[in-house]
Amino acid sequence: MGLFGGLDPVQRAIEALRAELAGGGAAHLSPEVQELANLVTQRAERHSQARTAHDNLQTMLDAVPDAAGIFDGSGRLQMANRAFLELRGGGRAFGHTALEATRSAELAEVVAQALAGKASQLELTLPAVGRTVRAYLSPLGQGEALMLLRDLTEAKRLEVARRDFVANASHELRTPVSAIVAALETLEVAAPSLPEAAQPFIDIIARHAERLRRLTDVMLDLSRLESGEWRLKLSSIELRSFCAQAVELVRERAEGKRIVLTSDVPEGLHAVADRRALEQVLVNLLDNAIKYTPLNGVVALSAAPVGLQVEIAVKDSGSGIEPRHLARLFERFYRADPGRAREEGGTGLGLAIVKHLVSAQHGEVSVESGAQGSRFWVRLPAR
Questions:
Q1: Which pLDDT belongs to residue 347?
Q2: pLDDT-based confidence at 259, cuts 50/70/90?
Q3: 170 burial class (0-12, 13-18, 19+ CB within 10 angstroms)?
């Protein structure tokens, strides 16, 4: 029976391998044992690959600056980076559900949606730590879901501080600006008795006082919008007559540059909007078009239905805007041509106001521009 004849096949294989490793002859393994060895090797390789994939995924999560975690098919936290663990306030998190890990029923709901295949995002405050975050949920393969949490707490605090500063500064500026305007009116009355050389200086004061007044008014409007003090009242607005009235408000400025103003709005077209807000949007867009349209140019206002929305457009015959500026035109104080904007008396806030007002009315705004001029359009819900 041989040296290991009395043992079962597996035990004989073990003893033969031990003898080989101790310096004996080559071990002879039965086909069954060889197959077992191959299966064990495959199993080890698979586990090694899984560990490598896990380690690679963990490395990727750790490289993400925002808090990130992965939930498995059962809705339990499987992996997370350090930022995620710190954001939730420490303590054991792995193996917990989204509700247990974040103490947020809203997050638990969107995690369930992501596990079902629906990507989503929302802004909320984490109850356990009082931090404001924007959560991004994305479904992954194998029934898993990825959660990214971007901490907005500091950004929100700075935004509130900036808004308060702008509001306070605007209020404080109103008093000296009013005093300058009052003194200027006195000077203008007395202008005939003043030396002729004084008139250019009076004109400079008048121009810049008006610019200051407009700037403080626009800054206050922005502050009221952002703080929620400017409450919009949405209603159905008949656009043909409404747009005609907006055109009349800027006609004098257009005539000063011999610019032709046109309005092409079909009868019976309605949009859901706030009357005061929409008027300011149209006047700002028309005023902007007039500023950047050369003498004897054309500014055209039009409106038309677009699906479930109404599109109102203002097109000018100016020289157009360089493509590199288009993405930033609606930012505060951004000017594609700073020198010309200051010469025209612009505040750099008109388009920012337009964007805020349109967003508050559940609409969207954009711009298209080329060598033949620029076209700003606003889309609002139709009636």
A1: 60
A2: very high
A3: buried
Q: Which pLDDT tens digit goes with each residue over 78-127?
A: 888 888 888 776 666 777 888 888 888 888 888 899 988 899 888 988 88
Q: pLDDT for 189-235, tens place per residue?
A: 888 888 888 888 888 888 888 878 877 877 777 777 777 777 788 99
The predicted model scores a pTM of 0.55
Do the beta carbons of residue 316 and residue 373 sit within 8 Å? yes
State the Cα torsion 246-248-251-252 to the nearest 10°: -120
Higher per-residue pLDDT: 350 or 59: 350
- 215/346 Cα distance (integer angstroms): 9
Return the HEC string of the chain. Answer: CCCCCCCCHHHHHHHHHHHHHCCCCCCCCCHHHHHHHHHHHHHHHHHHHHHHHHHHHHHHHHHCCCEEEEECCCCEEEEECHHHHHHCCCCCCCCCEHHHHHCCHHHHHHHHHHHCCCCEEEEEEECCCCEEEEEEEEECHHHCEEEEEEECHHHHHHHHHHHHHHHHHHHHHHHHHHHHHHHHHHHHHHHHHCCHHHHHHHHHHHHHHHHHHHHHHHHHHHHHHHHCCCCCCCEEEEHHHHHHHHHHHHHHHHHHCCCEEEEECCCCCEEEECHHHHHHHHHHHHHHHHHCCCCCCEEEEEEEEECCEEEEEEEECCCCCCHHHHCCCCCCCCCCCHHHHHHCCCCCCHHHHHHHHHHHCCCEEEEEEECCEEEEEEEEEEC
* Separation CA 292–CA 259 (nearest Å): 11
